[in-house]
Design brief:
Blueprint (H helix, E strand, L loop, with lengths): L2 H44 L6 H8 L10 H32 L4 H33 L6
Helix pairs in contact: 3-4
Length: 145
């Protein structure tokens, strides 16, 4: 067994362990946040405090901090994601030439990944623009909704 294959296997395992731990932590965080909301509601009910429906709904809202129910709220996030993704694609494009000098076989796949990143970023920007047009058209007085 070569040392290189052992290093590659270790790096791959470390990556997937990181992804697994990150996903588990996100799920655990969401569960704990929901559990704390339920405990606060339970404590208020046990004390006999009157609960308004709006307060209960706000506490039990699954994603109360996101506020992305309205399409207008999503447009800035799509634009930011598009800009970051395009910048990443450009970075991979530049890195492909430096890495390609040392490892020529990696140059073409890296250029493909860069093109994919730029295309995804452009798609996000187009989606943000379309969402902006949709929300403006929906909000105009002559629109039928």
């Amino acid at each position: 067994m070569h040392i290189d294959s052992l290093v590659e296997a270790t790096v791959a395992a470390a990556f997937w362990i990181f992804v697994t731990v990150s996903a588990y932590a996100a799920i655990k965080y969401d569960f704990r946040k929901r559990q704390l909301a339920m405990e606060s509601l339970r404590a208020a009910i046990e004390r006999g405090q009157p609960l308004e429906p709006a307060v209960v709904e706000q506490i039990l809202a699954r994603h109360s901090e996101s506020g992305a129910d309205d399409p207008e709220d999503l447009a800035p996030y799509l634009q930011i994601g598009g800009i970051i993704t395009i910048a990443s694609g450009i970075g991979v494009f530049i890195a492909a030439f430096f890495v390609g000098q040392q490892f020529p076989i990696a140059k073409l796949p890296m250029l493909g990944a860069a093109a994919l990143g730029v295309c995804v970023g452009a798609g996000l920007l187009v989606a943000a623009r379309a969402l902006g047009r949709y929300s403006r058209r929906r909000g105009s007085p002559d629109s039928v909704a």
